[in-house]
Amino acid sequence: MIGPVSGSSPSAQPTTGIGGMDGNSFLNLMIAQLKYQNPFQPMDASAMMQQTSSLTSVQTLQGLSALQKEILGMQEASTATGFIGKQVTATDATGATLSGVVSGVTYTATGPLLKVAGSDVPIADISQASNAPGNGTLA
Known about the structure:
alpha+beta, SH3 type barrels, five-stranded antiparallel β-sheet, 2 helices
């Protein structure tokens, strides 16, 4: 499945920093800590429980973050579909202002692109939208 915002599946996203550490990395770090601890001063049981609790919290937050990205992608797709048939003003990739009726939507890894006057325009570049003439209005 293509991730809605990042373009990759949630399990294939690169991890960076301690906040991006997955469960296996965390467990390997904890095992190394236990392996090389001073046998005359073993790790406190409460410290072990705190680290295990931290692992669970990190995993839960990572799952929540992936879910939020997926929901955002679905919202963007729904919003993009709602623009079909609407008159919009947007800025294209060259910085030029263009106006036209949205004729379609293309879904990409970076988000949906609206087809306006023959150009693909990201939703973020739409500056104005209204009902198109003859689309149920008198304008």
